[in-house]
Amino acid sequence: MRVTTSFPLGTLRDTPSEAEIISHQLLLKGGYIRRVNSGIYAYMPIMLRVIEKISNIIEKELNNIYCSKLLLPQLHPAELWKKSERWEGYTAGEGIMFNLKDRQGKEFGLAPTHEEVITSIASEMINSYKQLPLCFYQIQTKFRDEIRPRFGLMRSREFIMKDAYSFHSSKEDLSSFYEKMEKAYENIFKNCGLDTVGVDADSGAIGGAASKEFMVTADAGEDSILFTESGSYAANIEKAVSLPSEEIPLIMSHEEWIETPNQKSIVDICQNNNLDASQIIKVVIFLAKFEDKSEVPILACIRGDQNINEVKLFNLINKKYISNLIHLKIVEDNAIINKNLTNFPLGFIGPDINDETIKTNSSWDKSWIRIADYSASNLSIFVSGGNKVDFHKVFRAFSFIEKKFLISDIRNAKKGDCISQESNEELKEKRGIEIGHIFQLGQKYSEKLNAKFSDKDGQLKNLWMGCYGIGVTRIAQAAIEQNHDENGISWPIQISPFEILIIPTNLKDPIQKALTQEIYEEFISNQIDVLLDDRDDRAGVKFKDADLIGIPFQIIIGRDSINKEVEFFSRSSKSKIKIASKNLLEKFISESNVMYNKNS
Predict the structure, then answer these.
(1) Cα radius of gyration (the chain)
(2) Cβ 492 vs Cβ 458: under 8 Å
C-alpha cells in the first residue's frame, strides 16, 4: 500500500490538550483516531487495520472452540430489559444506557451489552438438550452514556467489543466451557502480543456466580490489582479478600463517655485522645435505592483504619436483603439527613443508634439495615460515636449484635495485607487496564426471560448461560501503553497496521526510485503487509512519522542504493544494519518470525 494513493497519515506535531495519558496522545498524534465529540472517535484507515487484525485473532480462536459468529441489533426494546429487571438500573440507576422513544412512544435503549436479546432469541430456537452446548459471538459497536468520558478509547461513549454468549444443559457443562473460554482468552491476548494477568473479579451489573477479568498492567490503568508475588492469588480490588493488620488492643482507663468537641474524623479523635485508628469503629450511612422505588437506610460499621468496599456492600445487600438494588450512595447531605432523620448526630454516630431516629413521615424504610465488617465485629473493646453531638463512647463488647447486624466482609483489601492465617504472603498492588471479562451467568437471564429446554427426561429446565467480553478498541490502546517510547508507538507485529515500512529518502533520484519499486513489488508478491511512504517530503519528516506510527520494521533507501544496499531498522530494539537488497526479504522473514514467536 502506498501512502499517496491510499490515505493521508494525518500525524500531528503537537500533543492534543484533551489527551491525558500517553496511549491517547499517541493515537491522536499518530493519526489513528480523530475526536468527533467527547468520548466519540472516528477510526481512521490506519486504525481500522489494527482493529481488523485484533478481530481476526479473536475470530480464529473462538472458531477453534466451535463458537458461531452472528450480528445482533444495537437498538433494544425496553420490554426485554424490563423482563430481566435491568432497565431501571441501566437507565435511572447507573444511567449508562442511552435510551429513547420512537414516534409511537415505545422505549428503546442503545446496547451496552446483549444478554437480554440473545436470551430471547435462544428461548425461541433452543428446545432440546440435544442442541446444547451452543455459543454465539459478535464483534460490533457498543454504547455507554459515560458521565465523564476520558483516556480516549479506554472510557468512551461508543466502542468496539467482542461479546459471546454460551448456552448449556447443566452447571457442570457451563463450568467446563468457561475453562475453555478462559484458555482461549489467554491465547487471544498472547497472539495480540500483550502481557496480561487474569484476576478474580466482581460480576457487577451483568451478574452471575463467577467471573474473571484479564488485565494489561499499566500505570494508566483505572483498576487496582492485588496479587501475591508467587502468583497464588490475584484479584481486582473490588473482589479481593485478605486479613486486615492486627489491631492495637485498647486498654481503657477512660470513663464510658469521652468528650470529643468538634472531633468528627478518625484522625481528630486519635490525635486528641491518644487512640489508634484500629481501636475505633466508624459508622457510615448509605441509602439503598431499589427497582421498586423503595429507599432503605444502611448502617455500615468498619474498623477505623479500614475502608468500606462499596461494591462488596452493594452485592451483599442485593443478595441478602432486597434484590434489584439499583443504587447505593453515602448519605452526607445535611438537607437529606434533616428531611429523613430526627436529631441525627452526623459525625458522632454509634453502631447502636435506634430505629426511632428515622422520621415517621420519611420516604425511607422505617428501620436500619445494619451491617458490620469482620474487622469491627472482632473487636472486644473499642471507641465509637455516642449518638450525641461532641461525645464518643467506650463499648466493652459488640453487645448490640442482637440488633440484627449482618457480619460480612465489606472492607477494601489493600497492599501489605496477608491473604490468610496459614500464609505469610503479602499482597502487592499494580494498576491494570481491563481488556476482557468472562462470567458464569448461571440461570439468571434464562429464568427471567423464560428460556427453557427439554432435558433427557422430558422435563423443562432453565438454560445455563455464560457471557464473555473483549474490548477490541481497548486492546489496541492498551497495547500502546505497553509498547511505546519517547518517539512514539512500537506495535507488536501481530496487530500492527503494517509489518514493514519502506522509506525512500529521495524519490527524485532515479536509482532510489527504481530500487524502491523493486523492493516494494518483491514484498507485495510475497504477501507481506507493507506500506510505502512515497510522499514528496523531507527524509526527516518521514523518519519522525515512522517512529510515531510505530510499524515494527523499516527499510530506509538512501545514497547506498547505488550499490544496491539499504538500511534495515527494528523499531522495538532500535537496531539498524546495512544490508544488500537481495538479502532483504530473507532478513525480514527471519526477524519477523522471531518477533511473532516471542510475542505469541
Answers:
(1) 29
(2) no
- 3-class state of residue 259 by DSSP: strand
343 — phi, psi (to 5°)? 45, 50
Q: Which of 581, 589, 600 shows the shortest CA–CA distance to 529?
A: 589
Nearby residues of 347 by Cβ (< 8 Å), 6 or more positions away: 264, 265, 385
DSSP single-letter state for residue 16: P
Contact 234, 227 (CB under 8 A): yes
Distance of alpha carbon 441 from alpha carbon 180, whole angstroms: 16
Q: What single-letter DSSP state applies at residue 411?
A: B
Give alpha helix (H) positions in 371-509: 374-377, 444-448, 472-482
Cell readout for 266 is 478518625
pLDDT in tens, 354-395: 888 999 888 898 889 999 999 999 898 999 999 999 999 999
Give the type of residue at 264.
K
What does DSSP assign to residue 293? S
User: Is 553 in contact with 570 (CB distance < 8 Å)?
Assistant: yes
Mapped onto helix, strand or coil, the DSSP state of residue 46 is helix
How many CB atoms lie under 10 A from the CB of residue 103?
A: 5
Looking at residue 419, its amino acid is I
Amino acid at 320: K
C-beta separation of 220 from 151 below 8 A: yes
pTM across the whole model: 0.86
Report the alpha-carbon distance of residue 201 to residue 235 in Å, rounded: 6
- Asked if 169 and 129 count as a contact pair (C-beta separation under 8 A), the reply is yes
Farthest-apart Cα atoms in the chain, separation: 97
Residue 418, C-alpha cell as written in the block? 496477608
Spell out the residues 6+ positions from residue 76 whose beta carbon is closer than 8 angstroms to its own: 108, 109, 110, 111, 114, 116, 117
How many other CB atoms are found less than 10 A from the CB of residue 457? 7
The DSSP annotation for 223-257 comes to EEEEE-TTSS-EEETTT---BPPPPPPP---S-SE
Report d(CA 414, CA 396) in Å as an integer: 28
The C-alpha atoms of residue 234 and residue 497 are separated, in whole angstroms, by 33
Torsion of CA 284, 290, 292, 296, to 10 degrees: -10
CB-based contacts of 130: which residues, under 8 Å, 6+ apart?
none
CA distance 107 to 459: 36
C-alpha–C-alpha distance, residues 314 and 318, integer Å: 6
Q: Which three cell numbers stand for residue 421?
A: 492465617
Q: Render pLDDT for 93-150 as a digit per residue (tens, 0 to 9).
A: 668 999 999 999 999 999 999 999 999 999 999 999 999 999 999 999 999 999 889 8
CA 43 – CA 365 distance, rounded (Å): 50
* Residues 181 and 133 sit within 8 Å (Cβ to Cβ): no
- Answer for the pair 464, 138: CB distance below 8 angstroms, yes or no: no
